[in-house]
Amino acid sequence: MGQMKIDDAKAPEVLNLLELSANRLTSIANDLLKKNKGDENKKILFNLHKVLDELIGEYHGRAEFKQITFVKNYLSQAIQIVGDRTKLQRAFGNIIKNAVEAMEGNGSIVIETTKPNGVVHVSFADAGPGISEDKLKAVLDGGFTEGKQDGHGIGMKVVRETIEAFGGRLNVRSEPGRGTTFWIELPLHPVEEAFTLEVESKNGRV
Fold first, then answer.
1. CA–CA separation, 69 and 130 (whole Å)
2. What is the pTM of this model?
3. CA 99 to chain centre
């Protein structure tokens, strides 16, 4: 049986990508188990930047993302979110994949997090062909199905519903020839509530 050879210098990176992929598969499996048990709506406290970093780390190891540059402009402090971690990560992943399709696998995606006025903002800006104003509403409604030349709209209805389940809102701005930016507004929970959720989660009561 043949064995895959890994350059010693790249071994840590490859192992990290394998770990990230395994973690995501474990999260998906756990999500399915929760659904079978009727626990899919339970909330947990999690780190927003870690969710994003896991996605970026995994995508770096995929062939279709080799020509994609991720630029991270994160808020210097950690951002804690309460809700369904797996579903939010899937929503982010869908936005990123659509952006990659829009750029035909070559370009940059700028991911930025801010916290203005007690609300979390997460934005994904691509360097794709952009979307005309008359199509933007159809994109958010998930009804834009003109194929992959624009790369947006497929699955966006699910993304919007996921964000709304967090009590947030999905927005988009775009201009033909200047790319597209999706930004998400998420509510911040009081520190006391977040701490209680974290403690209860560790005790298996969330």
1. 18
2. 0.73
3. 12
